[in-house]
């Protein structure tokens, strides 16, 4: 056991920790690094771990700190964090051969756990690299101290990976995907990037500096025009004077059109598929007049896309366009609810709206007048609006600052409509989307977050009204980048973002192709499951179901394993005839068989030497000397020299000649 060759394992742990450092607390990341480096140094200089007393104290303190930080939460996230802690502490315990094997296996397990949180091409490559380093380190730790052992260990590890590649491919394609029997939350109760289920001044403005993807969309038919890409997420219908929120968080009335997985079959012309990034909530996004086309989503009565569980991993679903149905009437209770406002707030705005009602006839005319007011007066669309205070925010916006972002103007319009006794509510979601490579899909990012208004009109139902379109029409048609071009505040908080420099030709070319590679990786590799698998394999002859998939997988894997064993045996046989030491060993085994010694090829070399020495005591010194040379050649990683090979051949020849002539002596050994 060579404990001086743990360097690859340190590098492997560094890669694994790098993949998880974003979700780990700082103290745990730094503590894990310190523990691993300390354990590595202990092995290099002292060849043993910490004393049990100190190790026990450190384990108790670490467990107490972990419990105090996570406060008893039980999620996959906390379990994975605890695994990081235990693996780091195991480095301080290394002292016996068994500890190295345990550390190898738990680091392999920790590497695979990374896939729960990162499934991109980049991190998958990092996972494979860490596994390769772990196997290389194991080869080095067991292989001795010969020069060049690191290169030789890397070659052996690469050979193992290449040999297993066919089995991995077969398992990936044919192994049946079975849903989990139970589940636990994936992430802790931590803040996630994306829309909130409430809206107040500044809520969406904060997302405008975030270029993380929110979701990607592939259309079966033509891509809608930019002005029609309103991706609805939440309906906010209750106002407390500053903040809008949702009346009912558990409104589950929904429909599902097609009883199949989201990724099955080709997209129809009236369908589109959304690949949603994890955001820890239970809602999705859809265009207006869309209904579910896959069984993993539903649509509630407010037009919200809902999931059964929180979106903790990427989720794919399909939607289908549907002709709008005749609008139902609002009940008296609903009308009262959608016109309700807190008393004693924004009195100037109330008075101004009352005056406009007297001057304009009809609800629709009043709505047009209010929308035109945003266009005719000097309102400004900005990422850095002046603070509105905690009370009378609508008054401050309409009569004082006259600058804001989409949530400011949407809130003001909804308030004015309600004060005019017109049912209104806020809708939050995203607007627009950037075309990917060759316009094959849309990328909707966090900075595309948007808020608009829906007003109820008799005979038409809920109608979309967007005051931002009256103030900054370029935001609707060209996106936030163009709208903020004159102000220069786009992604100012992230100077290293590639999206900030999209107007540079080669940067734009690179970022779009990197995104496309990751998108197709997620769609066809990570998303290859369930009905997608059955749909693909259904193109093969015969009726393939999950049971048949299991049979096919077992047969193919067994065939590959048998083929691998056969090839290995054939290579070993060829190696016997190529390697002079194996040829010499073959001569030795045949001599044992001819002499009737009670030990053969199935016995160890030591057993063969012992049996032959007992059978021929006069030849025992030569036999022991030959056995020692063979043992060194087979089990010492250093290459034996030609002098040792020549000596072994002389010993073998001497044993055969002396036995055949019935003589005894020890001349070969004397050399």
From TrEMBL:
It comes from Vreelandella halophila. This is DUF3488 domain-containing protein. SUPFAM superfamilies: Cysteine proteinases. Keywords: Membrane, Transmembrane, Transmembrane helix. Residues 398-469 form the Transglutaminase-like domain. The chain crosses the membrane at residues 24-41, 53-70, 76-93, 100-117, 123-144, 156-175, 548-570. The lineage of its organism: Bacteria, Pseudomonadati, Pseudomonadota, Gammaproteobacteria, Oceanospirillales.
């Amino acid at each position: 056991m060579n404990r001086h060759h743990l360097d690859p394992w340190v590098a492997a742990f560094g890669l694994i920790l790098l993949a998880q450092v974003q979700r780990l607390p700082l103290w745990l990341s730094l503590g894990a690094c310190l523990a691993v480096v300390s354990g590595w140094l202990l092995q290099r200089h002292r060849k043993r771990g910490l004393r049990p007393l100190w190790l026990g104290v450190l384990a108790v303190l670490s467990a107490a700190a972990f419990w105090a930080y996570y406060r008893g939460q039980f999620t996959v996230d906390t379990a994975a964090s605890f695994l990081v802690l235990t693996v780091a502490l195991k480095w301080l315990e290394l002292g016996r051969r068994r500890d190295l094997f345990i550390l190898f296996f738990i680091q392999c397990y920790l590497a695979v756990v990374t896939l729960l949180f990162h499934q991109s091409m980049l991190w998958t490559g990092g996972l494979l690299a860490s596994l390769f380093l772990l196997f290389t380190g194991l080869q080095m730790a067991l292989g001795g101290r010969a020069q060049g052992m690191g290169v030789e260990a890397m070659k052996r590890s690469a050979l193992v990976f290449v040999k297993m590649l066919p089995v991995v491919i077969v398992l990936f394609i044919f192994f049946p995907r079975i849903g989990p029997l139970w589940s636990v939350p994936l992430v802790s109760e931590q803040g996630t990037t994306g829309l909130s289920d409430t809206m107040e001044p500044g809520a969406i403005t904060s997302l405008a500096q975030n270029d993380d993807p929110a979701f990607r969309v592939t259309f079966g038919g033509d891509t809608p025009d930019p002005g029609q890409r309103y991706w609805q997420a939440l309906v906010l219908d209750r106002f407390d004077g500053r903040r809008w929120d949702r009346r009912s968080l558990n409104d589950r009335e929904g429909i599902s059109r097609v009883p199949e997985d989201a990724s099955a079959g080709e997209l129809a012309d009236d369908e589109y598929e959304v690949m949603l990034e994890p955001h820890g909530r239970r809602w999705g996004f859809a265009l207006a007049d869309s209904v579910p086309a896959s069984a993993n989503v539903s649509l509630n009565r407010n037009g919200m896309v809902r999931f059964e569980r929180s979106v903790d991993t990427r989720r794919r679903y399909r939607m289908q366009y549907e002709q709008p149905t005749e609008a139902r009437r609002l009940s008296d209770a609903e009308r009262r609810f959608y016109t309700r406002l807190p008393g004693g707030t924004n009195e100037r705005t109330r008075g101004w709206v009352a005056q406009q009602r007297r001057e304009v006839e009809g609800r629709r005319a009043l709505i047009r007048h209010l929308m035109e007011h945003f266009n005719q007066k000097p309102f400004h669309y900005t990422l850095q609006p002046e603070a509105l205070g905690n009370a009378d925010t609508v008054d401050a916006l309409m009569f004082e600052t006259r600058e804001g972002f989409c949530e400011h103007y949407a809130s003001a319009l909804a308030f004015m409509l309600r004060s005019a006794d017109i049912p209104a509510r806020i809708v939050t979601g995203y607007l627009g989307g950037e075309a990917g490579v060759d316009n094959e899909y849309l990328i909707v990012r966090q900075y595309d977050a948007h808020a608009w208004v829906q007003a109820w009109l008799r005979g038409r139902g809920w109608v979309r009204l967007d005051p931002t379109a009256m103030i900054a029409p370029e935001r609707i048609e060209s996106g936030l980048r163009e709208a903020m071009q004159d102000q220069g505040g786009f992604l100012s908080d992230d100077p290293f973002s590639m999206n900030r420099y999209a107007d540079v030709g080669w940067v734009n070319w690179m970022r779009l192709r990197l995104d496309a590679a990751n998108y197709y990786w997620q769609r066809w590799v990570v998303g290859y499951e369930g009905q997608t698998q059955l749909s693909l394999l259904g193109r093969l002859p015969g009726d393939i179901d999950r049971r048949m998939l299991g049979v096919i997988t077992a047969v193919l894997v067994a065939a590959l394993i048998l083929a691998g064993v056969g090839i290995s045996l054939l290579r070993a046989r060829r190696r016997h005839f190529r390697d002079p030491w194996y040829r010499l060993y073959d001569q030795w085994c045949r001599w044992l068989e001819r002499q009737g010694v009670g030990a053969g090829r199935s016995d160890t070399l030591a057993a063969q030497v012992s049996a032959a020495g007992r059978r021929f005591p006069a030849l025992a010194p030569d036999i022991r000397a030959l056995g020692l040379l063979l043992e060194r050649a087979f089990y010492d990683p250093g290459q034996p020299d030609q002098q040792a090979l020549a000596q072994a051949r002389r010993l073998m020849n001497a044993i055969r000649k002396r036995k055949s002539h019935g003589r005894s002596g020890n001349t070969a050994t004397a050399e």
